[in-house]
Amino acid sequence: xxxxxxxxxxxxxxxxxxxxxxxxxxxxxxxxxxxxxxxxxxxxxxxxxxxxxxxxxxxxxxxxxxxxxxxxxxxxxxxxxxxxxxxxxxxxxxxxxxxxxxxxxxxxxxxxxxxxxxxxxxxxxxxxxxxxxxxxxxxxxxxxxxxxxxxxxxxxxxxxxxxxxxxxxxxxxxxxxxxxxxxxxxxxxxxxxxxxxxxxxxxxxxxxxxxxxxxxxxxxxxxxxxxxxxxxxxxxxxxxxxxxxxxxxxxxxxx
Amino acid sequence: xxxxxxxxxxxxxxxxxxxxxxxxxxxxxxxxxxxxxxxxxxxxxxxxxxxxxxxxxxxxxxxxxxxxxxxxxxxxxxxxxxxxxxxxxxxxxxxxxxxxxxxxxxxxxxxxxxxxxxxxxxxxxxxxxxxxxxxxxxxxxxxxxxxxxxxxxxxxxxxxxxxxxxxxxxxxxxxxxxxxxxxxxxxxxxxxxxxxxxxxxxxxxxxxxxxxxxxxxxxxxxxxxxxxxxxxxxxxxxxxxxxxxxxxxxxxxxxxxxxxxxxxxxxxxxxxxxxxxxxxx
Amino acid sequence: xxxxxxxxxxxxxxxxxxxxxxxxxxxxxxxxxxxxxxxxxxxxxxxxxxxxxxxxxxxxxxxxxxxxxxxxxxxxxxxxxxxxxxxxxxxxxxxxxxxxxxxxxxxxxxxxxxxxxxxxxxxxxxxxxxxxxxxxxxxxxxxxxxxxxxxxxxxxxxxxxxxxxxxxxxxxxxxxxxxxxxxxxxxxxxxxxxxxxxxxxxxxxxxxxxxxxxxxxxxxxxxxxxxxxxxxxxxxxxxxxxxxxxxxxxxxxxxxxxxxxxxxxxxxxx
Lengths: 255, 281, 270
Known about the structure:
The structure holds 3 protein chains of 3 kinds.
Chain A: H1 7-26, H2 32-48, H3 58-89, H4 97-112, H5 115-126, H6 130-154, H7 158-166, H8 171-202, H9 214-222, H10 226-254
Helix pairs in contact in A: 2-10, 3-6, 3-8, 4-6, 5-6, 6-8, 7-8, 8-10, 9-10
Chain B: E1 2-10, E2 16-25, E3 30-34, H1 41-48, E4 56-61, E5 64-65, H2 71-78, E6 81-84, H3 96-101, H4 110-114, H5 120-132, H6 148-161, E7 166-170, H7 178-195, E8 198-202, H8 206-212, E9 215-220, E10 223-228, H9 235-243, H10 271-279
Parallel strand pairs in B: 3-8, 3-9, 6-7, 7-8
Antiparallel strand pairs in B: 1-2, 1-4, 4-5, 9-10
Chain C: E1 3-6, E2 9-12, H1 17-43, H2 53-64, H3 72-104, H4 112-127, H5 130-141, H6 145-169, H7 173-181, H8 186-217, H9 228-237, H10 241-269
Antiparallel strand pairs in C: 1-2
């Protein structure tokens, strides 16, 4: 079963995609001499995964990872805490229109800009260091969490919400009894997922001076010190894996 | 005790659901509200506790005007009116006990409800009600672990937990098998007789209604077309309520019946469905 | 027992006392952990910088308003490059992720060893941010759009591969058995029973990733991998905040548009 039932339209679409891909590919000018020259470096990089160097920059790696991990945790906690009121405000079935629009605007702003861009802004505001990173990641977390939370609230069972409202519950009681039980498992699951994302992001925002392991990684790559880069990347992968494993357990537990 | 005057409701879609309904219900009366799908039965009872906002008319409960109340006053009004739902509407992730105690939300403050610190008297009452509906042993179970009939029993306990003056019951048996339906109806009517509550029951099953209620009100196209004792329901009056209604256009769909599967068993103009539609665009 | 009765008064607790205690303890540990982490952040922060953060932020915004529209024309080419990086990168990534997901799904993998290998590729690709891939690729293939496309592709493999192999693992077995029973070969089974079942997930995931990649590709220029990020970086280094604002507005519009397209397509597919 094709998606587009009109045959001519389908052909036109296919042709359009093909033409676009050709056009797009033409806009790339690959310097093949440079690529072949770099290939050796590429092989070096891959080889360095077999002999990662954890030792020679162990101090920097340790400090960078510690900073990344602490940034991850604090920013996720702050971000999730802020995303709850904003997510409530962005759910059309419980928030009045002006509040809804305001919260949706915050979400749109936070989601549009890549973390790096936000980091640049906050580094300019509060100076270099992990604080800028924490604010950046918390801000990005708000957009991510609040949007998904709001969608989840909008999908909540309306009869359960109506029933609690009918008892004469106040707004807060209504949220606590009718909405929270319905969205809690997803909220916890998403928070853990975001913890993961924040850790991965914390490994790059260091490039623009917002703290974390990113600065060390950037330096090592620029110095072609691939053995150290490989060590850092391996550690990042390992931590991501561990956190995924852990969050799988927690998710099963809160169902 | 309950007095509706010229109650009207028009939905944002332009559908007139209620058209000047007058109704008086004395204390202790069990009233069945019958009528075709989309006649405005659900809208009518939701206008009483203001889950749906009527566009005109008044609702008086024990001499107090409910229409126009806001905030805390509306809460106080709502807690006097218990409600039982077709879909049971238990909060499925909360325990049976929490669901029953949520009937007290209109009486206690936020922090105490958050920490589940209910009065000993409330807990005693909840236990008695659960015992009465035969579910005391299930109080630790989660809502979604119960069967349909059990959920409805918890729903009844929750509504009575409010110590209401009036009970609104929306299609209590539509999702249940015949035997459970009879048991649930009997339970509701018995409990209300014991406490001398006024009850309005929306119901499709006319035969079932006739066996249990004191009074039947027939609603068609948002207007009261029959009001009398159950034994006064003749074939003619049933035709008046159901027959001449063009089933392909629901009252709430009004003249512009092109609005999706009209005449569908699930009331298209039902406020619940309207909410659900809004939530799943 | 949550319900306790002592001389005629009943008490009820939501949880067993032991369980409740455990929950409070978990909250306490969480709080302590948060405070320790905050301490580390705080120790590495020069709080004096923060005193004028409000002033700095305001002056930054003041310098951004009004945006310098005069450079809009010269930004069109980088914007086109950014779109291409995202689109071609996604296409490449999806093309690689597609066979990979069949190797990874438990019900279609030819060999457990191959599955382990494919899973490793997916995990590594997912764990590493597109920007890091870009930094690496810039040192390998040189700066430019090509490095950006490859970076986007490498990052997308893991994302698309994971969602796709999960979709494959969730397919209904009956149609597969039906086709197998008709004596079809392996490729025919995939084409006639598996493929139709995962098609919506496939298109949805690809479009979703494309939407994310648009956002990601706006910053690749910061490390020299092409696109509008290059101009943004230059403007920031020149402290030309009016130009930066123009770039921001363009990015905002592009991302909103791509999100809209992606939502439309996904709604049509599911």
